[in-house]
Amino acid sequence: MAPKTKFQIDLLGQYLDNALDMDVFSTKQSHVDVLLSPEALEKYMPILKENEIETTIVNDNWQNVIDEEARSIQAQKMVLKAIGQESRVVNTFATSSAIYTWMSQQVAANPSFLSEASAGRTYENRDIRYVIFKSPNANARNIWLDCGIHAREWVSPATCVYIIDALIRERNNADVAAVLNKFNIYVLPVHNPDGYDYSFTAGQRLWRKNRRLNAGSSCIGVDLNRNFGFQWMVAGASNNPCADTYAGPTPDSENEAKAVEAVINSKRGTWDAFFTIHTYGQFWFTPWGYTATLPSDYADLKAKSDIGVAALTAVYGTRYTVGSSTVLLYAAAGGSDDWAKGVAGIKYAHCLELRPASTGTDSNFGFQLPVDRVPRVGEETYRGFLAFLGTF
Predict the structure, then answer these.
(1) Is the pLDDT of residue 198 over 60?
(2) DSSP letters for 199-265
(3) CATH of range 65-389; options 3.30.530.20, 2.40.50.140, 3.40.630.30, 3.40.630.10
């Protein structure tokens, strides 16, 4: 859908915020990608035509995309089994338990500079576990990186796993060693393990939220990236438990949000940057998410982001757009990056939207990026992350 006028944008925005039968995949100023059932398509097409909102059906059977992703994963598993690497986690889509097992193995093998800890427990009592690259410098500052806050965004946890692995492999490289000497780097690969693991079950590949049982409703889950306690429910969030963007009963109501906040707050004043990684769209976002008004230090935020994006693009030519998420996409309050800057006082708080873009190469896959794309996504994101940290 491609709204052009303010009236069309406002009308479509009302549906995106409130319609339970319209699954929003990606939004740009030029167009919006949504997933509709045949019944919902029949319902909305007359409204779109009546209001002259340009509409194109880019895929008439999304199940085929999900099936193609599943085939790519199965093919990879067969190859890994043949070479005796069926338990491999790097460059795959792995469950939270498999990722945690791998993390513990890395810590055991590298105790001099790597440790792990739990940020807390989820609604379903899963661990929320992260690793810490411990700098030898007693005056080192801290960097936070998390992935997988939205369950269906599988390439996000895979990218955090890639970055952990790459930092271990390249720790003696001069540029990497300089970064690891300057910072303690905290990496949480799966922020939402309940929802993430649930999205591996049959028929639930597009699950987004956590798995909270909502009082008074048969609908399950809270959108964790609408639940953080800064400008909560101001924009782009729903108070309907059945909505994908349900912000929860109160700000900071969710265990998963509170767990990350607790780690950040325990070392408040020592953080130089906060990153949360999503997919898709190829954006390097700066605050704010709740308003189009830019923060007073926007020029600084963008300058460092531009350096990170330039390094990312240099790897495979992948083009990212830098800027405020509200200006480039839509307003969405209650995000973790806004909380990091607005409450925790972390100057450089960023959200990355990884491959694919919403148009062009691989855009037809949406959240179901084939597993063979994981190494390239991980590598380019890692290079951009390193370049950003190298600016301090």
Answers:
(1) yes
(2) TTSTT-TT--S---B-TT-S-B---GGG-SSSSTTSSS-BS-TTSTTB--SSTT-SHHHHHHHHHHH
(3) 3.40.630.10
Residue 328: the pLDDT is 86
Could you give the maximum distance between any two Cα atoms of the chain, in Å? 65
Question: In this structure, what token pair is assigned to residue 119?
Answer: 């940020």
Read off φ and ψ for residue 27, nearest 5 degrees.
-130, 130
Which of 254, 256, 353, 379 is an active site residue? 353
Terminal C-alpha separation, the chain: 41
DSSP string across 10-46: HHHHHHHHH-TT-EEEEE-SS-EEEE--HHHHHHHHH
Boundaries of every domain in the chain: 6-50, 65-389
Ranges 74-78, 150-154, 213-217, 386-390: which has the least confidence: 74-78
User: 């109501």: which residue's tokens?
Assistant: 253
310 CA to centre of own chain: 20
Active site (annotated) includes residue 353:
yes
Q: What is the pLDDT of residues 291-301, one digit of tens each?
A: 999 999 999 99
- Provide mean pLDDT across the span 92-101: 97
**DSSP β-ladder status, 321-324 and 283-286:** parallel
Rg (CA), the chain: 20
Sheet strands (E) in the chain = 23-27, 32-35, 114-121, 127-133, 141-147, 183-188, 271-279, 283-286, 321-324, 348-354
The total number of residues written for the chain in this structure: 392
The identity of residue 167, as a single letter, is L
